[in-house]
C-alpha cells in the first residue's frame, strides 16, 4: 500500500477544500477489512479487479471503472475477490464546499456509488500526486489543484451519464409510444411511415431505435403482433379466414395466408383445424 498524508495549513475545515491523504492499494486475494471511521470524505476509484463494499449497511458491487464515497463518520468495509483482487486509488478530503462539489457530481451518502470510463485520466492525476516530493515548496498547491481536477472530472462525468440516461429514456419513450400505436391500430392498414409520422420521427431513426432496443424492425414487430392476434382469433371455430385476415389488417386473405405460413410454418386453415381438435 502506498499512502501519503498531507499535513499543512491547508488542513482547515473552514476553507473551500482540504486534502488530507491519498494513495494506491493493491488488495491481496480475498481481502476483507473494515475501513477506519474518519471525519473526512474518502473517494475510491477502482482501477482493476472485482469486489464489494458495504456503506451504512448497504452492499454494493465493485469492478473496474466503478467508484464509491465513504462520507465522514461512516461505518464501512471493503471486500476483494479471490480470483480478481481489487486495485484502487483513494483520496481523503474535507472543507466547507466538499459536500457541495460532491452533490454536483450526484455523489452523496444516499448515492455513494458512481461509474467512470476515463481511467487513464484518473491514473494521470494520482500519478502526479504520487510524484510530488514532501520537500517541494509548491506541493500543497499541486496536490489541491489535482483534487479540484478530480472533482471537476466527477462533475463532468455525471453530466455525460445523465445526458445518456435522458437520451435512453427518450428512446424508450418513443418505443413505448410506437408499440402502443401498433397495439391500437394493428387492424388497420398501418405502415412504418404512419408510425414515424405519428411520432414526428425520421423513419430511419425509428427503425434504428427499434433495432437497438427490441432487436427487430418496426415492420417485423407489426407482423409479429398481427400474427399473434390472428392465432387468438383462429381458436374460435366460427371465425372465417377472411374475417380474421381483415381483423388483423390484411384486406387480402391470400396475402395474409402467405405471411401467416411464413411466420408459423403452417397455413391459417391448418392452424385453425389443429386448434379445433383441442377444444
From TrEMBL:
One GO MF term on file is: DNA-binding transcription factor activity
Family matches, as Pfam families: AraC_binding, HTH_18
Q: Does the keyword Signal apply?
A: no
Family matches, as SMART domains: HTH_ARAC (SM00342)
Q: Which keywords annotate this record?
A: DNA-binding, Transcription, Transcription regulation
List residues of the HTH araC/xylS-type domain. Answer: 176-274
Q: Which InterPro entries match?
A: AraC-bd (IPR003313), Homeodomain-like_sf (IPR009057), HTH-like (IPR037923), HTH_AraC (IPR018060), HTH_AraC-typ_CS (IPR018062), RmlC-like_jellyroll (IPR014710)
Superkingdom assignment: Bacteria
PANTHER family annotated for this entry? ARAC-FAMILY TRANSCRIPTIONAL REGULATOR (PTHR43280), HTH-TYPE TRANSCRIPTIONAL ACTIVATOR RHAS (PTHR43280:SF28)
Name of this chain's protein: Transcriptional regulator, AraC family
Source organism per entry reads Pseudobacteroides cellulosolvens ATCC 35603 = DSM 2933
Amino acid at each position: 500500500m502506498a499512502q501519503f498524508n498531507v499535513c499543512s495549513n491547508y488542513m482547515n475545515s473552514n476553507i473551500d477544500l482540504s486534502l488530507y491523504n491519498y494513495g494506491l492499494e493493491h488488495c491481496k486475494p480475498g481481502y476483507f477489512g473494515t475501513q477506519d471511521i474518519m471525519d473526512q470524505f474518502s473517494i475510491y476509484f477502482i482501477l482493476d479487479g472485482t469486489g464489494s463494499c458495504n456503506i451504512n449497511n448497504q452492499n454494493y458491487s465493485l469492478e473496474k471503472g466503478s467508484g464509491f464515497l465513504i462520507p465522514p463518520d461512516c461505518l464501512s468495509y471493503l471486500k476483494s475477490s479471490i480470483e480478481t483482487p481489487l486495485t484502487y486509488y483513494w483520496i481523503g478530503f474535507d472543507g466547507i464546499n466538499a459536500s457541495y462539489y460532491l452533490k454536483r457530481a450526484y455523489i452523496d451518502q444516499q448515492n455513494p456509488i458512481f461509474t467512470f470510463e476515463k481511467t487513464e485520466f484518473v491514473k494521470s492525476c494520482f500519478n502526479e500526486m504520487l510524484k510530488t516530493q514532501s520537500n517541494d515548496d509548491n506541493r500543497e498547491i499541486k496536490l489541491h489543484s489535482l483534487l479540484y481536477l478530480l472533482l471537476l472530472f466527477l462533475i463532468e462525468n455525471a453530466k455525460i451519464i445523465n445526458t445518456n440516461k435522458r437520451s435512453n429514456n427518450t428512446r424508450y419513450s418513443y418505443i413505448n409510444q410506437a408499440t402502443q400505436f401498433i397495439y391500437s391500430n394493428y387492424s388497420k392498414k398501418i405502415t412504418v411511415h404512419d408510425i414515424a409520422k405519428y411520432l414526428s420521427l425520421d423513419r430511419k431513426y425509428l427503425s434504428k431505435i427499434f433495432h437497438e432496443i427490441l432487436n427487430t424492425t418496426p415492420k417485423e414487430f407489426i407482423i409479429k403482433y398481427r400474427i399473434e392476434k390472428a392465432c387468438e382469433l383462429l381458436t374460435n371455430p366460427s371465425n372465417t379466414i377472411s374475417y380474421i385476415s381483415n381483423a388483423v389488417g390484411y384486406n387480402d386473405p391470400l396475402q395474409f395466408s402467405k405471411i401467416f405460413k411464413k411466420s408459423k410454418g403452417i397455413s391459417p386453415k391448418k392452424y385453425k383445424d389443429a386448434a379445433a381438435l383441442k377444444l
